[in-house]
Amino acid sequence: MSKILLVDDEKSIRITFSKFLGNAGFEVLTAENVEKALEIIDKNPPDVVVTDIIMPHYTGMDLLQKIKEKAYDIPVIIMTGEPSIDTATFSLRYKAYDYLQKPVNKSDLVHTVEKALEYKKLIDEKQFLEEENKSYRDNLEKLVDKRTAELTDAVTGSIQTISSMLRLRDPYTADHDTKVGNLAGAIAKKMNLSKKRQQTLVVAGYLHDIGKIAVPSEILSKPGKLTDIEYQIVKGHVQNSYEILVAAKLPWQIEELVYNHHERLDGSGYPRQKKGDELNLEARILMIADVAEAILTHRPYRPALEYTKLIDELEKKDGTLYDQDVAAVVKDLFVVDKYKLENKNMEFEFFVENE
Ligand SMILES: [Fe+2]
Ligand SMILES: [Fe+2]
């Protein structure tokens, strides 16, 4: 049964209106002043409030304001024997449901209350739907987070597996890949690239030489100089890496980047002799990270070289081979930040948004 709170200081009105509303099938609560009405509302909120305006101490306007301030979704019907612009405006501002002028007859009262109840029902339904919608969204978000974590683990696992396979066959390449990825990520971070771009470079580094899996290990670990044919076979790793990564369909677009890691800005690299603007910033970072690691690390065919050799390489041909802004960042990284090449796989954060 719908509950109506009737607030009026005149006892006769309370009695008469209670009868009207009671006969119409409502449960009626009454209060002779605002304080009592608020007590009832706080304890057991009614579905509709019908209130007089002029009462001793607090007015019906005070009651309306309190109800709205407390965020009760209760329609309030104002009744007054002395209508005024002020109270009408106030009622409008505080969203009173209706403003009735006394004397109010039975059918007007019952009809207005019934309409207020329908309105209240709509408010309740809307609130219910909003709550349901919110809990649905929360659950969906949790599910997406869970699935993302699972997918992250799966992809990380795949990369670790590839890395371990490569390590079994050729520890140099595996360590090299990891160190290049970490260095490329560190360069990107120092250049304030977005997290997504940093991650892309790390993963590209980790997998850039994956195509070496198809190069015979005696060639990869040959201590002496390679013959022309052997060199061509080694160079073929870029195409292999590209094709493997296209097929892998990783969440990052690294295949094109990996394809370009042996290119040079002046077009003297391989396999496609890309140059200048055809090589984006990521490609420019990856190629320097690759070269830096190769020079600063011990190789089967030679010991680790000095940092000065890296500078020589970066400045070769008047600095036309490499991006000089990236080169400057790398010099800073090693000289100022004392960066150390690391062969520990770093944690990935997948699907980071573009910043
Ligand atoms: Fe390579
Ligand atoms: Fe490499």
User: Based on CA inertia axes, which overall geometry fits?
Assistant: rod-shaped
Mean pLDDT value:
90
CATH architecture of the largest domain: Orthogonal Bundle
CATH class of the largest domain: Mainly Alpha
Query: What would CATH call the homologous superfamily of the largest domain?
Result: Hypothetical protein af1432
Low-confidence sequence ranges: none
Approximate helicity band: 55-70%
The string of secondary-structure elements, in order, is EHEHEHEHEHHHHHHHHHH
Strand line-up across the major sheet:
2-1-3-4-5
Rg calculated over all Cα atoms? 38 Å
Task: Give the class from helix and strand content and strand pairing.
Answer: alpha/beta
Instruction: Give the count of helical stretches.
Output: 14
Assess the beta-strand content as a share of residues: 5-15%
Task: Indicate how many domains the architecture comprises.
Answer: 2
List the ions, cofactors and other small molecules found in this model: fe (ii) ion
Spell out the blueprint of helices and strands:
Layout: E1 3-7, H1 11-23, E2 27-31, H2 34-43, E3 48-52, H3 60-69, E4 76-80, H4 85-93, E5 98-101, H5 106-169, H6 171-190, H7 195-207, H8 217-220, H9 228-235, H10 237-248, H11 255-259, H12 281-296, H13 307-319, H14 324-335
The structure holds fe (ii) ion (2 copies).
The site of one fe (ii) ion (FE2) has 5 residues, from loops.
